[in-house]
Design brief:
It contains one helix and five strands, in the order βββββα. A five-stranded antiparallel beta sheet has the order 1-2-3-4-5, covered by helices on one side. It has one helix at 52-59, and strands at 3-7, 10-13, 26-31, 35-39, 44-48. The longest helix is centred in the C-terminal third of the chain and has 8 residues, at 52-59.
Length: 62
């Protein structure tokens, strides 16, 4: 999965699903062990979990 950016220990990754059913555009946020998936428009958590501070930082990306 290509890495888009790193900040405050959070890694943001996104990949393209070629020849697969298309899902809501999203990115994956990794912070140590926890992982969360965020929809892009609007920026909202779709799955997973992150600590509250890291959640606020990820929502600020949109």
């Amino acid at each position: 999965m290509p890495e888009l950016c790193r900040f405050f220990g959070i890694i943001i990754r996104m990949f393209v699903e070629i020849q697969a059913s298309h899902h809501t555009p999203h990115f994956h946020a990794y912070y140590q062990e926890p992982v969360a998936v965020y929809g892009i428009e609007p920026v909202e958590m779709l799955a997973g979990a992150l600590p509250k501070r890291q959640q606020r930082l990820c929502r600020g990306l949109g």
